[in-house]
C-alpha cells in the first residue's frame, strides 16, 4: 500500500511539471499545458518537428480515401434512415398499445361506476323494503300475545271439560 501511494505521489509530481493536477477525493484530474502543441507533436512523423507558427503544413488528402469516406458516410446515412424508420414503427405500435390500454382502463372505470350506482340503488331499495316489512310486522308481537292468551284460555276450558 505504501509503495502504491509512493508511486502515485511520484506520478502526480511529474504531472504537475507538465500541467495542472486537481484532486477531489479519489479522483485526480490532469489538464496539460500547451495542449495544442502536444497534439501537433503527436501527429508529426518521428524526427520531424512541426512548424511553430501558424503556417503548419497539411499533408495532401488521398482522393481514394476521401471517396471511401463518402461511400461509408452514405452507408451510415442509409442505416440511420432505416433505424429511424424502425424506431418510428416501434413508437407507433407502442402508442397504439398505450391508447388501447387507456381505453380499456376508461371502459373499466365507467363500468365500475355504473355497477356501484346500481348497487347503491339496490341497497336503498332493500332498506326501504326492510322498513316496510318492519312496519308491517309491528302488530305481530301483540298478535302473538293474544294467541298465547287464547291458547291458555283454551287449555283452561279443556281442563274444565275433562
From TrEMBL:
GO process annotations (BP): lysosome localization
GO CC list: BORC complex
Protein name: BORC6 protein
InterPro entries: BORCS6, BORCS6_C
Taxonomy, superkingdom: Eukaryota
Provenance organism: Dicaeum eximium
Domain BLOC-1-related complex subunit 6 C-terminal helix, residue spans: 59-158
Amino acid at each position: 500500500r505504501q509503495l502504491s501511494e509512493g508511486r502515485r505521489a511520484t506520478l502526480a509530481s511529474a504531472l504537475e511539471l507538465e500541467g495542472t493536477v486537481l484532486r477531489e477525493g479519489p479522483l485526480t484530474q490532469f489538464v496539460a499545458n500547451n495542449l495544442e502543441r502536444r497534439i501537433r507533436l503527436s501527429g508529426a512523423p518521428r524526427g520531424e518537428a512541426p512548424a511553430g507558427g501558424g503556417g503548419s503544413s497539411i499533408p495532401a488528402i488521398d482522393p481514394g480515401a476521401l471517396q471511401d469516406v463518402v461511400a461509408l458516410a452514405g452507408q451510415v446515412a442509409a442505416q440511420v434512415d432505416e433505424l429511424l424508420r424502425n424506431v418510428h414503427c416501434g413508437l407507433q405500435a407502442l402508442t397504439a398499445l398505450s391508447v388501447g390500454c387507456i381505453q380499456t382502463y376508461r371502459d373499466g372505470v365507467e363500468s365500475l361506476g355504473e355497477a356501484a350506482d346500481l348497487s347503491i340503488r339496490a341497497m336503498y331499495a332493500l332498506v326501504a323494503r326492510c322498513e316496510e316489512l318492519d312496519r308491517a310486522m309491528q302488530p305481530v308481537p301483540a298478535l302473538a300475545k293474544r294467541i298465547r292468551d287464547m291458547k291458555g284460555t283454551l287449555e283452561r276450558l279443556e281442563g274444565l271439560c275433562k
